[in-house]
Design brief:
Helix content is 50%, strand content 11%. It is mostly helical. Strands 2-3-4 form a three-stranded antiparallel β-sheet. A two-stranded antiparallel sheet has the order 1-5. The termini are far apart.
Length: 262
């Protein structure tokens, strides 16, 4: 067999095997690539792999979204994981990233229903997952800001830890997340608490989730997007006092890694 034909044949085998793992029928007629080998028929052997891939996918998703799993229960989470995998099968050999599109999928799946808030809970959990996998850079102290000449202060920009993620929700997702940490977690949360804003980052080798005031969140979002100190006030419509509070906190916890004076 010519090398080109052998490569094509291998590709066809791989594609049919992948379709079989997903429970899809072969797209072209003809004899199957799978051969019976007692004591198991080919279909039974493929079924073992199919069940394993489903379980691995569901387990990876559960490890990424443990709070969501706890809130909806094992049975409903299993159903969601199955539907999600049908729409978004893994495209990578690393199952760590299978949940990347889960929050948006969940938002579409649950929109306008009583459980629409679960999508924002998933966004917070995915933000934590991204933060855990991000690089960590040395933080700078507030002295780096003090070194900027006063006349250049309005034009200064900050660079933050690569792990910093921001989540804003119309529901109390931070309270739900906080109530579901630890072995004895699961206390109910009053949905009437209202909107909550969060920041999460990997600091001191662990992911930390902070609850922020809405105005603080707006200022931090502007700064993280590259706004100067003056622009952050304008864009967020916050007062200089709010900016000062956000800056003090960000430097204190180690979120700032660089100050650039323009």
């Amino acid at each position: 067999m010519p090398p080109e034909a052998a490569v094509q044949a291998l590709r066809d085998v791989q594609r049919e095997f992948t379709r079989s793992l997903r429970g899809e029928a072969a797209s072209t007629p003809g004899p199957t690539i799978f051969v019976d080998a007692p004591p198991l028929a080919a279909t039974d052997r493929v079924a073992v792999y199919r069940n394993n891939t489903r379980q691995f996918f569901r387990t990876a998703l559960a490890l990424t979204y443990p709070v969501l799993l706890r809130r909806v229960g094992e049975q409903y989470f299993r159903q969601l994981a199955h539907e999600y995998r049908e729409a978004h099968p893994s495209r990578s050999g690393d199952l760590h990233w299978v949940g990347a599109t889960f929050p948006d999928w969940l938002a579409a799946r649950l929109q306008q229903g009583d459980y629409a808030w679960l999508a924002d809970l998933a966004r917070l959990e995915w933000a934590c997952e991204e933060a855990a996998a991000a690089a960590v850079e040395p933080a700078v102290s507030v002295g780096a800001l003090g070194a900027v000449p006063p006349e250049a202060l309005d034009g200064a920009r900050l660079r933050f830890q690569p792990s910093l993620r921001l989540v804003a929700s119309a529901w109390p997702v931070w309270s739900v997340w906080q109530a579901n940490q630890g072995e004895d977690a699961g206390a109910p949360v009053d949905s009437g608490i209202g909107p909550q804003h969060c920041a999460c980052a990997c600091l001191d080798d662990r992911v930390v989730v902070y609850r922020l005031e809405a105005e603080d969140h707006a200022v931090l979002a502007a700064l993280r997007a590259g706004a100067t100190l003056a622009e952050a006030i304008t864009q967020s419509r916050a007062s200089p006092d709010v900016l000062a509070r956000v800056l003090g906190w960000a430097f204190e916890v180690g979120l700032v890694v660089e100050v650039r004076a323009c």
